[in-house]
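Person: At home tonight, work slowly through the protein below, taking as long as you need, and write a paragraph about the fold.
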Amino acid sequence: MATATRTGITGKAAGTPSTATVGTAAPGAQRPAFSDRLVGWVKGHRQIASWFGAIVVVGAVLFVWTMATRRRTEEIASRDLQGARFAFENQNLPLAASELAKVVENYSGTNAAAEARLLLANVRLLENQPQQAIAVLKDYADGAPGAYRAQAYGLLGAAYENMGRPREAGEAYENGSAAARLDFLKAQLLSDAGRAWTSAGDTTRAIAAYRKIVKEFPKEGMANEAKVRLGELTKGTTCVNVDKLLK
């Protein structure tokens, strides 16, 4: 029997929810697009959105300003480097050293400063000041940009050789060879290392350097010289055979 209620005669008690209004969305219903949800979120969080927008704008302005400043700094450094090169090419080494030192100090981190540091070390070597050249390069070579690292180690090795420190020179030359990108430079620095190890009396490492040239860079001009040096280093020994080394 039907029950009488305030809402009229029905087969359900009052207050019972209808199945038509309960449950999940109808099958096939789609969620709002991401852009619509984003717009809705921004409208509901206007203050946070405005802060975020301001941060993005400030960041973009700072980025553009930094790039422009860096470009301007590089241009000025390059101009000053050209002035120092002019002094160097005219054999005015004291002036060149002074101007190069300023570029290194004032424009650290630029390509011009890296080039100036290498040229400054070269000037110190030409002025017979290997200790000053070492001071310019010792703490720099290991962290030098890839394009300059091999040259930095090569100059450092030359400075050590000029000071009569062949063992340090050998280490520097080998580090330079490892950092070099071109085969001829790798072979050249290994040859320099072999010479330094020979001066240091370390025949084992000298042979290893020359052997590496012959094995890994046989087409380079230094390979023939390396064979000659190997013959000299192994002459008269019974335990080391040059032919065996070259296999």
